[in-house]
């Protein structure tokens, strides 16, 4: 009714013959608007959850239906064809299967974890973590049912999980994943512009959470993961790594050194690690026996299909890697990635080159006085990374690998990976931060200002209120985190940058 009145009012407002009538309509519209605003404020203030649910729908990134995809110059618009094309592309990334050898002789060695007991308490705890948003997983059982009925379902499911590990028997429904193609760029046009995100059985994910919890405790106990590995670990956040990284750079600059940083991009790291190499690293991490066999059994017989706008493709076997979005995938990857740190921590390399890892991101750092520059120090580390990738059926994306130089300039610092010269840039994105090679944050502040302003105006167009309490909650929940992220990493000294950063808050308080 309100929208109809607005439309009618817009038609008569400029008609001099209907001036009195338009004033009455305008007055009613104003009263209706005031009433609407008052009711909206009342609803939003009743519960904080109401405000969160309402605003989240506005700011949450929405993915439009997958548009037409170009393949060999032909535009594909049929959803079934797009699903099959994406299925073939995602499958083409996988490495072929390789024979797996599991040594059972050392299953009972000290410090090994070879079995897990799925207790009622543990299963109930992790059933409560099931996603209420997964309304129809691959097994057809909504996560909300498992969440709400966790007390009743925990016992029978604990028996099922115990059977799985005792007999190395994983139900077929747990092995299949429904893959959604998520765009990597703003305007995707080809299959390579999408990444596969797997939706799996919520029941299986509950079992995986129990396993992951035990594995993480075990890895911490035996101190298996290197200090250089951040990401997918409690207490190893992006901010913590960036603080250490920036401290190292600032210290070297104060000492008068030049610093070369190589930001290495791995090609589809989660998808290309082979099951044989994962098994080898799990054994090295003293994860053996029934637990090892269960993990390998799941990885060896995975299948997936692709969903496009509600249309399903055929199923295909996933011959390598771990599913992106899987509960165990992250911890399996950092166990697999541990070997690279061993290689880079060899005395001859570590003496000159330091490395930093976050999930599958890798940075190499070499600092030196100009008169002592030796290109081979960094190049040896790069060659070792390349050799490790070849040995483990992985590869480095030379086109996306970047060289940033800090401190005194050195034009002779040119490095190669896979016989391709690494591109040198003045700034690159590192764990969400843009830090220029002169250590200023102009680019970073410009980017976060655009993001924060975009969110602010998107929200305020839909949330019509002048209530200070609601506006404060909106600002602290959705706007401020954009420019507070990793704020402990930097100390801005440039006046113009400070003004640009503070302008967001000043603008919001004026609105």
Task: Outline the structure in words.
With 511 residues, this protein is of the alpha+beta class. Among the domains are: 2-46; 69-224 and 291-319, no CATH class. The protein is built from 19 helices and 17 strands. The protein has helices at residues 2-12, 19-46, 48-59, 79-93, 120-127, 143-148, 150-167, 172-175, 202-222, 238-254, 269-272, 275-284, 289-300, 329-344, 347-350, 375-391, 442-462, 468-484, 495-510, and strands spanning 69-71, 74-76, 176-183, 194-199, 229-230, 258-264, 303-308, 311-312, 316-317, 353-358, 361-368, 402-407, 416-417, 420-421, 423-425, 429-430, 433-434. Strands 5-10-11-6-12-15 form a six-stranded mixed sheet, with helices on both faces. Strands 3, 4, 7, 8 and 9 form a five-stranded mixed sheet that branches. The longest helix is centred in the first third of the chain and has 28 residues, at 19-46. The chain is globular, with a radius of gyration of 28 Å. The two termini are 28 Å apart. This is Reverse transcriptase domain-containing protein.
């Amino acid at each position: 009714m309100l929208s109809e009145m607005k439309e009618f009012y817009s038609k008569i407002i400029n008609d001099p013959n209907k001036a009195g009538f338009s004033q009455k309509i305008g007055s009613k519209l104003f009263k209706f608007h005031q009433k609407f605003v008052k009711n909206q404020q009342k609803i939003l203030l009743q519960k904080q959850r109401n405000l969160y649910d309402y605003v989240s729908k506005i700011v949450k990134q929405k993915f439009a239906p997958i548009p037409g995809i170009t393949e060999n110059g032909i535009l594909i618009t049929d959803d079934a064809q797009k699903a099959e094309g994406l299925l073939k592309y995602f499958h083409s990334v996988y490495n072929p299967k390789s024979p797996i050898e599991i040594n059972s002789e050392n299953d009972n060695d000290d410090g090994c974890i070879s079995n897990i007991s799925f207790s009622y308490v543990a299963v109930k705890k992790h059933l409560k973590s099931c996603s209420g948003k997964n309304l129809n997983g691959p097994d057809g059982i909504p996560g909300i049912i498992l969440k709400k009925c966790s007390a009743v379902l925990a016992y029978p499911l604990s028996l099922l999980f115990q059977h799985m590990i005792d007999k190395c028997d994983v139900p077929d429904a747990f092995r299949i994943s429904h893959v959604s193609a998520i765009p990597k760029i703003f305007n995707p046009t080809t299959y390579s512009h999408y990444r596969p995100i797997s939706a799996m059985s919520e029941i299986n994910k509950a079992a995986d959470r129990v396993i992951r919890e035990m594995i993480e405790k075990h890895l911490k106990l035996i101190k298996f993961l290197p200090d250089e590995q951040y990401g997918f670990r409690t207490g190893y956040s992006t901010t913590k790594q960036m603080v250490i990284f920036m401290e190292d750079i600032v210290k070297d600059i104060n000492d008068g050194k030049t610093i070369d940083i190589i930001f290495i991009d791995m090609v589809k790291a989660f998808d290309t690690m082979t099951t044989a190499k994962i098994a080898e690293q799990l054994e090295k991490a003293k994860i053996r026996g029934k637990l090892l066999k269960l993990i390998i059994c799941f990885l060896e017989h995975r299948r997936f299909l692709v969903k496009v706008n509600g249309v399903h493709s055929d199923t295909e076997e996933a011959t390598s890697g771990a599913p992106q979005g899987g509960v165990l995938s992250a911890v399996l990857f950092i166990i697999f990635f541990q070997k690279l740190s061993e290689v880079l921590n060899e005395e001859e390399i570590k003496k000159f080159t330091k490395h930093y890892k976050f999930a599958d991101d890798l940075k190499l750092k070499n600092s030196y006085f100009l008169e002592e520059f030796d290109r081979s120090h960094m190049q040896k580390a790069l060659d070792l990374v390349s050799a490790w990738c070849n040995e483990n059926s992985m590869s480095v994306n030379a086109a996306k690998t970047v060289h940033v130089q800090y401190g005194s300039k050195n034009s002779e610092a040119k490095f190669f990976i896979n016989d391709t010269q690494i591109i040198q840039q003045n700034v690159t994105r590192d764990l969400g931060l843009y830090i220029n090679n002169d250590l200023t944050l102009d680019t970073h502040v410009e980017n976060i200002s655009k993001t924060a302003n975009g969110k602010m105006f998107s929200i305020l167009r839909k949330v019509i209120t002048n209530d200070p309490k609601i506006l404060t909650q909106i600002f602290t929940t959705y706007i401020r985190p954009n420019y507070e992220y990793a704020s402990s990493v930097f100390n801005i000294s440039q006046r113009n940058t400070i003004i640009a950063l503070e302008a967001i808050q000043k603008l919001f308080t004026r609105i």
